[in-house]
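Thread: fe (ii) ion complex, take 2
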Amino acid sequence: MGKEKVSGMLFQNLYLSEGNEPVDIRVTDGKFEEIGPGLQPRPGEEVVSDCAGKLALPPFVESHVHLDTCLTAGRPRWNLTGTLFEGIQCWEEYKPFLTKEEVKERVNRAVRLQASNGIQYVRTHVDINDPKLTALEAILELREEVRDFMDIQIVAFPQYGILSYPRGAELLEQALKLGADAAGAIPHFEFTREYSVESLNICFELAQKYGKLIDVHCDEIDDEASRGLETVATRAYETGMRDMVTASHTTAMHSYNNAYVIRLMRILKMSGMNFVANPCVNMHLGGRVDPYPKRRSMTRVKELTEEGINVSFGSDDLFDPWNPLGNANMRDQVFMGLYTGHMLGYEEIVNSCRFVTTNAARTLHLGDAYGIRPGGEANFVVLDAKDWYDALNYDAAVLRSYRRGRLIAASKPAEKHVYF
Ligand code: FE2
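Output below.
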């Protein structure tokens, strides 16, 4: 008798959430067909029982990273002060080495590192203040080449400004035409307050013209007078773009006075927009000009979350001049974010995986394509823990990562022995 054709897979006894009983998951033709307890194997179905008792989650989502600069730390030299500005200087010294092939080779390594940690969706910002748009063209090409295991969303990011860089608006428009998914801006880095507001107007106009999302590097500075956020929120509200708009960083909000924040919160809620904090890098780069005491430089994640506003966590930088550490493990962002944000209450810990899963998926507008539910694409990860609390605490290995029912990455947990 010939071997029967495998028609699908049945994963037995996986936990989907804290405190609930484990369930079986049936995957057929790359989709979740059935989810529930005690499903009976069908003839020819592959039964997967070696992850029984483990936690299954939708894949991790990296909602803010700069892939164009990744894996360049120490080349041509290290950022010794660790400041944003020396980082920019190091990057300027690296730029002569940039070619399309060089960028593709590096980013290819980075996305495989991400995949090994259970990430399947990435939003990358790509510097488009480059007359040749070398990095953008490289990552647009790579986006197609890695589609089978990674979705890459590209933000056209004007690192030096839209109005404070020669032909900035033109380059932004060109990047959107070439295929970037979202328009970026950097209002706090523009030369003047007027440029700051006008750059946001241009960003919104272009995004609407080409039907793109928006993700603004917004108020990433410890200057309490940096108020780009109120303009972003107001435009998101007035244009009706709402949750198509994201404000990344907003670290100045940490330093805003509370009277202002109370007023600001109203339009933030009305806008329906998303926020991304980058806990590790925000802590590393922030507070640098303070004498003691030094400010924490992360946006108000706790208060935004309590107001029902969507917040996710990103890595920002991955082993580059702005972050000499980083291994593309989203758990590290949650860990740092909870400590920095005073969010270690039991419920806050239990719910914290949303910052790098469902909340981040909302920011990326993944819609129904994301989540473990019958009819959806069978994209999920299995962690070496029974629940998220333990996964976070013990930095659980991502045992398996499945994409449309296909295994795309796997790892074995480290063994530890105590001999007494
Ligand atoms: Fe960033």
